[in-house]
Amino acid sequence: MSVNIKNVTVTFKNQVRAVDHVNLEIPHGVYGLLGENGAGKTTLMRVLTTVLTPSDGEVYLDGIRYGTGKDEVIRQKIGYLPQELNLYPGLPVQDCLEYLGELSGIPKEECKKRIRYYLEKTGLTNHRKKKMRQLSGGMKRRVGLIQALLNEPEFLIVDEPTTGLDPEERVRIRNLLVDFSEGRTVLFSTHVVEDIAATCSKLAVMRKGSFLYTGTVQALLSRAKGKIWTANVADDTEAKRLEKQYRTTSKQYTEEGMTVKIISDVKPDIDCTQPKITLEDAYLYLMMEKKKQSALKNKNFSQ
Ligand SMILES: Nc1ncnc2c1ncn2[C@@H]1O[C@H](COP(=O)(O)OP(=O)(O)OP(=O)(O)O)[C@@H](O)[C@H]1O
């Protein structure tokens, strides 16, 4: 399964350019799509599902070009979990999934077998008789994921699959996606950096309709090498003082007080050490660098 995005642009009627000339080849396995609110992730995913026709550019799935009369064939290869999904509130979970399976043309017995398997895998077996409207947000999300997996798609696109899940369920769903990706392609879009760190070896980082980065997690981590520092402080007042002085990313309470993470090309003039870089550090470093560059560009432009 290969997915190719070539020079794709989406401009909405209100002139918002949500996706701006992007190019991407999505390989096998779980591929992360990370980006701030409004970056263009959902718009790009809607293009990939054939729901939205781009204003410009081409998309190919296994060499089949979108919008050339073969979109139905493409759709049969795709499973999609959208950000918001309201599945038949009056139907019990089992009936709802059986109905969706029937709509997808999955043979009845095979469909029941898959439903049993995925209910078990998502920890929902004991909730299968509950009506959809009686489920918690996290449970609804998991049923939504099952509907996307049900036709065992070659290309699975999931938009924020772990939203509303408790930590244990989050891990369970991540593992399910990794297992499912064996021999398939999974596009995993999220704001949760931890989700990407736990599932993907490659990712794209999106901002304002463009990719700031595409490549391996490892290479992104090495970009931030030598730029992240940790300082221990006694309390929040001291942490705030550091925040005024340096570009800080996070602070965390510890047994002794607090630790503050600082981004700096050179060692800050305080007692600090270099921690093991996390994907969150590398992501925040990338975002800060790009924002700094755009601010500089705007300043030069207005001078
Ligand atoms: N149908 C639409 N008409 C006009 N503008 C839209 C439409 N859909 C999205 N947008 C705009 O396009 C931009 C990208 O939105 P999109 O939903 O793709 O971002 P996102 O990265 O998925 O954000 P989030 O992480 O918050 O879901 C935003 O500025 C949004 O307001």
TrEMBL record:
Keywords: ATP-binding, Nucleotide-binding, Transport
SUPFAM superfamilies in the cross-refs: P-loop containing nucleoside triphosphate hydrolases
GO molecular function, one term: ATP binding
Pfam families: ABC_tran
Domain called ABC transporter: residue spans: 3-233
PROSITE patterns assigned to the protein according to its UniProt record, in alphabetical order: ABC_TRANSPORTER_1, ABC_TRANSPORTER_2
UniProt record similarity statement: Belongs to the ABC transporter superfamily.
Name of the protein in question: ABC transporter ATP-binding protein
